[in-house]
Amino acid sequence: MAAITLTRLTDDDREQFILDNQRAFKYGAMEEFGMRDDHLEEDGEIISRRTIEHSIDGGVAYRIREDERIVGGLVLKIDEETRHNELELLFVNPEVHSKGIGYAAWQEVERLYPETLVWETCTPYFETRNIHFYVNKCGFHIVEFFNSHHPEPERPDEPEFDEEYGDEPMGDHDGMFRFEKQMKRG
Question: Which CATH superfamily is domain 4-182 in?
Fold first, then answer.
């Protein structure tokens, strides 16, 4: 495998990042559910433009590159005070799935942020490929399952529901697993 690197997202690549992210998420859902559309947000997307923009604007976005070719992206939320950080988004272009790119990108994240005490992320219950990746490859543990009997707590830093955009409330992650990875300190 070629070298995997992370480069900061540039303003001129923002639109393509959003489109690539939506395509990757839609691919995963279509692989699992086919043409059923009950998991779609706005404009037939699994993840809305607004959700991605909110992540980018509130975090640190990177492009995943194999040599110089863009093969995915990720967004992190870094809290330098608590060192409890979040992986908000991670996607690899579908045409390069199962080549170790996501794992190599995750290793690069851990290398870039060695002071992290805990990493956290979430993924939908139907994304079995993601669940396998986080638990079996990256060493995360499932710590919570958000559903109708156990809704996600409200988060004051997330935007409110906006009917004009057809958005779901950002904190309404029904059917989402929450993962944590405790980092070892030497």
Answer: Gcn5-related N-acetyltransferase (GNAT) (3.40.630.30)
